[in-house]
Amino acid sequence: MLSARQIIALVTAAFLTTSAIAAGGADYPPSNIDRDNIQSLQRGAANFMNYCSGCHSAEYVRYNTIGKHLELSEQQLIDNLMFNAEKTFETINVNMPMDDAVTWFGAAPPDLTLTARSKSADYIYNFLKGFYIDEEQTHGVNNRWLAGTSMPHVLGELQGYQRAVYDEKVGEDGSVTRTFVEFEQAIPGQLDPEAYDEFVRDTTNFLAYIAEPVRSERRKLGVWVIMFLTLFGILAYMLKKEIWKDVK
Ligand code: HEC
Questions:
Q1: Is there a contact between 148 and 174 (Cβ–Cβ < 8 Å)?
Q2: pLDDT digits (tens, 9 = 90+) for 8-65
Q3: Are the C-beta atoms of 57 and 111 separated by less than 8 Å?
Q4: Under a CB-based contact definition with an 8 Å cutoff, are residues 93 and 104 in contact?
Q5: Which residues approach ligand 1 with their CB closer than 6 A?
Q6: Which residue in 53, 85, 146, 233 is a FRET match for 171, CA 20 to 30 A apart?
């Protein structure tokens, strides 16, 4: 039989493993998004509609859900976010036919509703900061996190363009190994690096939100469930003691 201590250790280990798996994407520098920051989410929504929704849909989230969680009135929704839609119960669609997209870009822009879950928010944040000049590519840019990407640097006006700096080592056999060191700004953009960072963080925050719109409600519920289970566990234990106390 397992002792109580062993059981607790097992349960804790299982819990830590699942949360580590759920957190995922630990290889990327952190995005530090704050999912409870409504202003950041509102700015992110506007960024997404202005700079991304021309190519990317978010077909699993409705405008009125966004409006409710982001504390926006129906008029604010219509004026600031609903460029491709007429009714607030519609989802975020793209007008561009996907066949054309493949011809123009070489790949269809994926739906972004769940990308923050499939690839992690940290990935998106770094992806948007990872474009650098590469004349050999079709769009004149490459991406540090998705080599040879078909997505143009759509935020180039805001961020400007950066160059990748490499450390080159020549091995004994004459082969060259290049390791990435850092980005250096080659052409300045409209935003300074800090402001661009905020822009990308807000946009990422919004994408993390649409990937899990009921997250905050679920977490509140989770606390009650844990409290119930703990209380129930104590009661069950006391009951067991009571029933078995005369049987030895
Ligand atoms: C001009 C069209 C266009 C616009 C605008 C655009 N994208 Fe993309 N995006 C693409 C294409 C094409 C791909 C597919 C890239 C590939 O597979 O190489 C893509 C892929 C992506 C991916 C997936 C990367 C991966 O690892 O699979 C993310 C995330 C993304 N875009 C985010 C954004 C965000 C955020 C914006 C707005 C700031 C945006 N995109 C604006 C065309 C666009």
A1: no
A2: 776 666 666 555 555 444 589 999 999 999 999 999 999 999 999 999 999 999 999 9
A3: yes
A4: no
A5: 51-52, 54-56, 105, 107, 109-110, 112, 115, 119, 124, 127-128, 146, 149-152, 154-155, 203
A6: 146
